[in-house]
Design brief:
Blueprint: E1 5-11, H1 14-27, E2 30-38, E3 42-49, H2 51-64, E4 69-75, H3 82-87, E5 97-103, H4 106-119, E6 122-129, E7 137-143, H5 145-160, E8 165-171, H6 176-182
Antiparallel strand pairs: 1-3, 1-4, 2-3, 5-7, 5-8, 6-7
Helix pairs in contact: 1-2, 4-5
Length: 183
């Protein structure tokens, strides 16, 4: 994945987002994990690399593209489950309780996923980042009921102050048919 840090930027417009991304990758040695247009016409970019490189790239976005920038963050030590969850490639052997947390934006969903995964013994299943959701995002995680409840609560608390938390739920014992549609 190119390093130990993760940076995310979310822009109001595609033109600003693509222009900023070009500037960001020219600023420092970072890898593009994902960059795309998302509903409703926003643009997101997720970068990885060394902490200093990712920070330099995100700082450029803040300083040169502030007005169209909706949100950003740099995470110095992302949980290892973040990347497979973003790609929808997490392999879950024995799913347990299901935790769901929904946000109004991409940045908050990734922050919430990292907090959740570091709070309790849970596995991240998926991070759906604004695709087909009118800009909203959600995360799915699994584990023992108490761990999932603790992880969801910690994730919710971590993003609530920013106003980006939308909804959450914990299903203690999801039907196998439901998991078949998720996994």
């Amino acid at each position: 994945m190119g390093g130990k840090a993760l940076g995310v930027v979310e822009f109001k417009t595609v033109a600003s987002g693509m222009t900023a991304l070009d500037r960001m990758v020219k600023t420092a040695a970072v890898d593009i994990v994902e960059a795309q247009t998302v509903c409703p016409g926003k643009y997101i970019a997720i970068l990885s690399g060394s902490l200093s490189s990712v920070k330099a790239s995100v700082d450029i976005a803040r300083s040169e593209f502030g007005e169209p920038l909706l949100g950003d963050f740099v995470l110095g030590n992302p949980h290892e489950g973040i990347f497979p969850a973003i790609y929808g490639a997490a392999e879950i052997e024995n799913p347990g309780a299901l935790g769901i947390l929904e946000t109004y934006d991409v940045v908050s969903a990734i922050v919430a996923a990292d907090v959740a995964a570091k709070t309790a013994a849970v596995e991240l299943i998926e991070l759906r980042l604004a695709k087909g959701m009118c800009g909203k995002s959600y995360l799915l995680l699994t584990g023992e009921v108490a761990a999932v409840e603790a992880a969801v609560q910690a994730a919710k608390t971590s993003i609530a102050a920013g106003g980006m938390f939308l909804d959450s739920s914990v299903i203690a014992s999801p039907d196998k048919k439901m998991y078949n549609t998720i996994l």
